[in-house]
Amino acid sequence: MAVGLESGALRPVLVLQEASGDHRLLPVWIGTAEANAITVEQQHVSLPRPITHQLIGDVLEALGRRLEQVRITEVRDNVFYAELILDQNTKVSARVSDAIALALHLGVAIHAEDSVLDTAAVAHTAIRSQGDERTPDEVEEFRRFLDTASPEDFDPD
């Protein structure tokens, strides 16, 4: 998972990578605040006060509830939809960016429905390496790709 900026418009884009199979990339354009929240969690930044997704995680824990996974369920009209899958068979609708920030905060798995991957994910073999390990050069290449990517780079047609 990486957060970068779309060239030109400088819109944040979250890129998720399929963990198995073809290792396709799933680009999701998100807001600046959401990109910052995800980056805070990725970099394990300690803040003096909780931000929204951290507060939600704290409330869940205080109520004795557990987030089991985040599931990206649908993409419709270029809008991604997600669900928080809680214990006790509870599902809560969420924006993908908020759900991912919460998943990172609580250390839970993020899954995408095959239909979402088939619809919106793209192949990008330039970041593959032997096995599942990434070399520092490949990670840097991927970061450079994100810095210059545009929505057209992810158009499967």
Cα distance spanning the termini: 23 Å
How many DSSP E strands? Answer: 7
Strand adjacency order, main sheet:
6-5-4-7
Mean pLDDT: 83
Assess the beta-strand content as a share of residues.
25-35%
Describe this structure in words.
Strands 6-5-4-7 form a four-stranded mixed β-sheet. It has a three-stranded antiparallel β-sheet with strand order 1-2-3, with helices on both faces. β4 and β5 form a beta hairpin. α1 packs parallel to α3 and α2 crosses α3. It is globular. The protein is of the alpha+beta class and 157 residues long.
Task: Kindly list the characteristics that best describe this protein.
three-stranded antiparallel β-sheet; 5 helices; alpha+beta; four-stranded mixed β-sheet; 157 residues; 7 strands; globular
Q: What's the short story on this structure?
A:
By secondary structure, this protein is α+β, with helices and mostly antiparallel strands. The chain contains five helices and seven strands.
